Amino acid sequence: MASSNSSSFPHGARDGIFLKPQEPAPLCCKPVQSLPDVCPKEPTGEGRGLCAGPSVVPEHDRWTVYSSKVNLPAALNDPRLAKRESDFFTKTWGLDFAEAEVMPSFCLPNITREHFGLYVQEMLQRERIHERCKTICPIKEDVDAISSMTTNHDKPRAELEKVPKIFMKPDFALEDPATFNAVLPWSHFNSAGGKSSRDVSSSKLLQEKMSHYLDVVEVSIAQQISLRSEAFFHAMSSQHELQDRLQETQCAVAVLRSRTTAIDRVMCQGPLQALRIALTRSNCVKLHNKLKLMAAVHQTQPTVQLLLSTSEFVGALELISTTKEVLQQELQGIHSFRHLGSQLCELEKLIDKMMVEDFSMYVRGDMSRSLREEPQVLEKERLESLVFGLLRQRKLDFLDTYSDEIMVSAKAIVAQCVAEALVHIEGIDSEVVTKFAEQMRVMTFPQWFQLLKNIFESFLLFLQRIKATLNIIRNVVLEVQLSGQKRVPGDLGSESQTRESQANSPLLLQGEAELAYLTHEGLFISDALNEVQQQVRDHNQDPVTSSRGQQSQAEALGCDSTSEVVETPVGREPSLMPGETTMPTELELKRIMTNIQDLLYSASDISHDRCVKVLTARAKDGSLERLSVAEFVCLSQVVEAFAKDTEELCGRHSVSLRGALQSQANRFVHRFHDERKNKLSLLLDNERWKQAEVPAEFQDLVNSIADGRITLPERKIPDLEERKPAEFLLVDGQKYAVVGTVLLLIRIFLEYCQCVNDIPSIATDMLTRLSDLLKHFNSRSCQLVLGAGALQVVGLKTITTKNLALASRCLQLVVHYIPIIRAHFETKLQSKQFSILRHFDHITKDYNDHIAEVSAKLVAIMDSLFEKVLSKYEVKAPMPSLCFRNVCKQMAKMHEAIYELLPEEQTQMLFLRINGSFKMHLKRQLARLGVINDGGPQHGLVVVDVAFYTENIQGLKSLEHLDLNMAEIWEQKR
C-alpha cells in the first residue's frame, strides 16, 4: 500500500511514525501537467480596460504541485465548508470564494421524479418483503460481528485508558522542560558519575513502560485502521482514478488555452483597442464640454452686471440660478470656483433689494403721472419683469407697497382737484383759507358740485389705471401658476438626466455601452452595440426631443454668449428654467391672486372714503341740508352714478359713500318735511274753507296722475292766451269742490313722490314723513272745522254746512289719492319693507272716520233744528202750518249749500238721514199731542202738513225719487 501511494505521503517516515520534512523533496514521478490559474489576482481598481485587469488568456509559468496554495488533505478537510464539496476543482478556493449557480445544460433532458415512477412501482413490493425479512430473521454473521467488535473494542479501550493523560494532550511537547520532567523523571537517576544497578533497573522499567504505552497506542491505531480499511482503500483507489482524470483535464485545458490565446490575439485585441480609443475620445469630449462650461461660468459675474445695468433682473436671476445649479452638479469640487457660490448668493440678495426698490420707484412713478393724458399702464414689460422676478425670489409682500402708494395717491388726487378748481374761481384766497374743507365750504354749490364731479372722474380714471396694472400682475401670476401645474415635481431629476443623455452624441451613447460591457453588466458586446444603434435611431427620429435636448444642453452649458441670456423672454415657461424650484407654491399663488382682488376692492373703498371726506367737509355747516330738491337730486344722481361705475369696474359694493349720502339724505328729508309741514300748517291756519278756483296747472297735474305719471310735470312756457281757472277739479270724471290748501297738498305729496323717484334710498323715510303729513292735514282740518278752531284762528263767524261739506269733499279727494300713493311707494320698496305700508291703511281709516263725523255733524245740525221747531208744532189751521214751512225752508237751504259740493249719491244719503231725524221728532211731537191715525180732523191737518213737506223735499234737485216713507210717523192703533 505504501509503494502504490508513495506520491501521496511525504518521505522521511521512520518506525511507522511519519515526520514532517524540513524542505520539500522532488517528486520522482513523471512531470505533472499544468493546471489553470483558478485563483486570479484580485482587482486593484487601476483603470477599467481589459489589459489592466486579470487575464485568463496568456500562458504563465507552468504549474506544479509545489505552486498550489493548499494541499489535497487540507482541501478535502476544509473546516469552513459545511460538507465536503465533490466539485472543488471548479471552484476558487479561499475566503473570497462565492458560489455561483451552474446553469443547467440545454443538451440534457430535465429528469424528474416521474421518469422513475415505473421502476419504483416494480421494486416497491420487493423492498417491503426484504425489510420484513430483515426484522424477522437477522443475519448470524452480522450478529457475531457486532458482538465480537464490541468485545474487542472494549478491551483496548480499557488498556488505552491506562496510558497517562499527558500523552493525550494536544499541546504535548517534549521540548517543554516541565513536560520532559513529567515524562522522564530524572530525579530517580543518580546525577553523579557512574551508573548504579538501581538506576539501570529504573531506566529499563521506564523503557518497558514506554514501550507498553506505544504498543497500546499502536494496537488501538491498528484496530481503528482495520475498522476503516475498506473506506481507506476505496479512497486510495479513487485517488488514482482522480489523478487520471486530472491528466485528461490538464490536456483539455492546455488545448483550450492555446485556442483562447489565438482568439484573443485575432479577434479581441483589435476591437478592444477600438473601444478604448472611443472611450478616450468620449472622455476628451466631456472634458472639452466641462472646460467650455467653466469658461461660461467664469463669465457669469460680468454678464450679471451687464444685465443689471439694463434692469434685466429676471435674466440675471436665471443666470445666477443656472450657474449655482451647475456649480452644485457639474462643477462640484473645483477649487477655482470655491468662492463663486457665496458671491452669487450675495449678488442674488443685492438683486432682491434692487427689485424691491425698483418696484417702489415704478409704483410711485405710475401713481404720480397724469390721469388723463398718459396711457393706463406704464412700461408693461418692465412691470412684468419686476413682478416675475419678485415672484421668483418669493418676495410676496410687494402688493403692500402698492397698497400704501394707493392711499397716498388717493389723497393727492383730492388735493390736486381742489387746487385746480381754486385756480378758476375768483374771490377765494388760498393763502388765507388754507384748509381744503374751508375752501370747499366757501365755494358756491355749482362750483363745489363741479369740483365733486371732477373728483369722481379722476377717481374713475385712477381705478381704471389700478385695475389695468393689477391685471398685468394677475396675468403674470396666472402664467406662473399654470406652468407650475404642468411640471411634475417627481420627475425633475430624471427629466434633466434624460435631456442630458439625449443631448449627447451617439458616440457618447456607444461609450456607455462599452462601459456596460467593460464593467460586466451582463451585456455581450454585440448586444450592447445593437442597443446603442437602436437608441441612436430613436434619437434621430424624434426631432422635438433632439431639439429639446440641444436646448437643455445649451442651458446646462450656460450659453456661449451673453446675448443669448439677454434676449431670453420674460414670459417663457418656468419649467425650462433651472431656478423653478424657487417659485411660490400653489397655495401661495392662490393667496396672491386673492390679495390682488382684495387690493382692487381696497382701492375702491379708499376712493369712496376720500369722496366721503369731500362730502362731509361740504356738509359740515349744513349747506347740503339747505339744497333745493333739484340740487339734492343732482347730487344724489352723481353719487349714485359714481358708485355704480366703481362697482362695475371693481366688482365691489362699497357702502361708505352711499352711507354718507344716505345720512345727508335723511337730514335733507327731515328739512324737506319740516318745510312742507310748516307750509301746510300755515296754509291751514289761513284757510277760510271757501271753495277755491282750480288753476289750469293743477288740473293738468291731476290729469298726469290719472295717466299714471306720479311726478311733478315740467314747467311749461306760459301760453299767450292763459286758460281760465275752473270752478271744480275733475278727477276721474267726478267734480271736486276743494279749498286752495288741498290743491297745494296734492302738489306737496307729488313732491314727495318725485323725491322718491329721484332718490330711491330715501323711500322709507319719505313714506314715514308723508304719512305724518297726511295725518297732520287730517287732524288739523278736523280741529279747524269740526272743532271750530277756524273761528279763533281765521276769524270765521260760524262753521256753516257749506264749510262742512267742503271739508268733507276735500277729505274724500285725499282718500282717493291714498291708494295711488301707496302703489307708487310699493314699487320703490323692497319686499321686506312692505310692512310700513300699513300706515296708509290707518290714514285711510282716519280720513273715512273724519268724513263720517262731518256727515254726522250735518245731520246733527238739522236734528237740533227739528227739535227746536217741532217742539212748538200745534195741529191747527191755517195749513200748511208755519212750523212745516220753516222746516222746508231750512231743508232747502241745506240742499242749496251742499248740492254743488257733494255728489248726488252722498246728497241723497244725507237727506235720507235728515228725513229720518225729522220723522223721529215729528212722531214724538204727535205722540205728545195725542194725534193718531184715526181719520179725525187733527189727523187730516197733519196729513196736509206732511204732504206739503214731502212735496217740497221731493221738489229739490236730485231728490225727486227719494223715498221719504212718511207713514212711519203714525203709531199703531190701540
Automatic annotation (TrEMBL):
Write out the entry's keywords from A to Z: Coiled coil, Golgi apparatus, Phosphoprotein, Protein transport, Transport
Signal peptide positions are none
Chain intervals for the UniProt region annotation (Disordered): 536-581
Which Gene3D superfamilies does this entry report, sorted A to Z? 1.20.1280.130, 6.10.250.860
Q: Where is the composition biased (Polar residues)?
A: 542-565
Q: Which stretches make up the Vacuolar protein sorting-associated protein 54 C-terminal domain?
A: 734-863
Short name of any one Pfam family annotated for the protein:
Vps54
Kindly list the GO CC terms recorded for this protein.
Answer: cytosol; GARP complex
Molecular function GO labels: syntaxin binding
- Localization, UniProt: Golgi apparatus, trans-Golgi network
Keyword flag Transferase: no
Family annotation (InterPro entries): Vps54, Vps54_C
Q: Which GO terms describe its biological process?
A: Golgi to vacuole transport; protein transport; retrograde transport, endosome to Golgi
The family annotation for this protein states: Belongs to the VPS54 family.
Q: How does it assemble?
A: Component of the Golgi-associated retrograde protein (GARP) complex, also called VFT (VPS fifty-three) complex, composed of VPS51, VPS52, VPS53 and VPS54. EIPR1 interacts with GARP complex and mediates its recruitment to the trans-Golgi network. Interacts with VPS51 in an EIPR1-independent manner.
| Function (record text) | Acts as a component of the GARP complex that is involved in retrograde transport from early and late endosomes to the trans-Golgi network (TGN). The GARP complex is required for the maintenance of the cycling of mannose 6-phosphate receptors between the TGN and endosomes, this cycling is necessary for proper lysosomal sorting of acid hydrolases such as CTSD. Within the GARP complex, required to tether the complex to the TGN. Not involved in endocytic recycling.
Q: What is this protein called?
A: Vacuolar protein sorting-associated protein 54
Q: From which organism does this entry originate?
A: Takifugu flavidus
The root-end lineage is: Eukaryota, Metazoa, Chordata, Craniata, Vertebrata
